[in-house]
Amino acid sequence: MQDEKLIPLSALQHYAFCPRQCALIHNEQVWAENWLTAQGKVLHQRVDRGEPETRKGIRYERGVLVSAEWLGITGKLDLVEIELSTGNMKPVEYKRGKPKRDSWDRIQLCAQGLCLEEMQGRPVRSGALWYWQVRHRDDVEFTEQLRDETRSVIAGVRDLLTSGHTPKAAYEKKCDSCSLYDLCNPKLSGNDLSAGYVDALFDEENRQ
């Protein structure tokens, strides 16, 4: 993967949430803020400004830059906890909302663990997601199933970015919370029959 452009870790979460959102942001360079993304930005800025510290045998490193050339991904981690007695590392990702049933956040976190593994040459078995809305921390084991799902998303993002293609819109309930809702317009785009209408006109002309 050394000859290919490294994929930002954020793109994995975007893709897992919605491939069209990922394409709009990373292929078409489209972005818009809403109150959810604004809160998330403030939260990450607070975390990144924190100084490294050691408490009860744990070293806390913030704003850690990582990359995994073999996997082709790169990014900045909110927090890495390092157990001084063993050297074991655990990435911690801060999220504005609350725990989700879907695996978008866990995939992004697992990719962080894979970066640390490649850089340090030792296994990273788990990470944690800290949710600001509920003030709750979820520990996440990096199972083989989650690792496979994460690698699959990495491959999907790479294909999407290489192709430059933007998938068509398909409205789902989760679209309502997307900051790109007005730009994507999933209800209108997903039900756009204009292309079929034009094709039908040409077919009609050809039959005459």
From TrEMBL:
Secretion signal, residue range per the UniProt entry: none
Cofactor binding note: Mg(2+) or Mn(2+) required for ssDNA cleavage activity.
Function, in words: CRISPR (clustered regularly interspaced short palindromic repeat) is an adaptive immune system that provides protection against mobile genetic elements (viruses, transposable elements and conjugative plasmids). CRISPR clusters contain sequences complementary to antecedent mobile elements and target invading nucleic acids. CRISPR clusters are transcribed and processed into CRISPR RNA (crRNA).
Listed cofactors: [4Fe-4S] cluster; iron-sulfur cluster; Mg(2+); Mn(2+)
Gene3D superfamilies according to UniProt: 3.90.320.10
One Pfam family from the record: Cas_Cas4
Molecular function terms from GO: exonuclease activity; iron-sulfur cluster binding; metal ion binding
EC numbers: 3.1.12.1
Organism: Marinobacter pelagius
InterPro entries, per database record: Cas4_exonuclease (IPR051827), CRISPR-assoc_prot_Cas4 (IPR013343), Dna2/Cas4_DUF83 (IPR022765), PDDEXK-like_dom_sf (IPR011604)
Annotated keywords: Antiviral defense, Exonuclease, Hydrolase, Iron, Iron-sulfur, Manganese, Metal-binding, Nuclease
Similarity field: Belongs to the CRISPR-associated exonuclease Cas4 family.
Gene Ontology biological-process annotations: defense response to virus
Protein name as it appears in the record: CRISPR-associated exonuclease Cas4
Residues of the DUF83 domain: 10-185
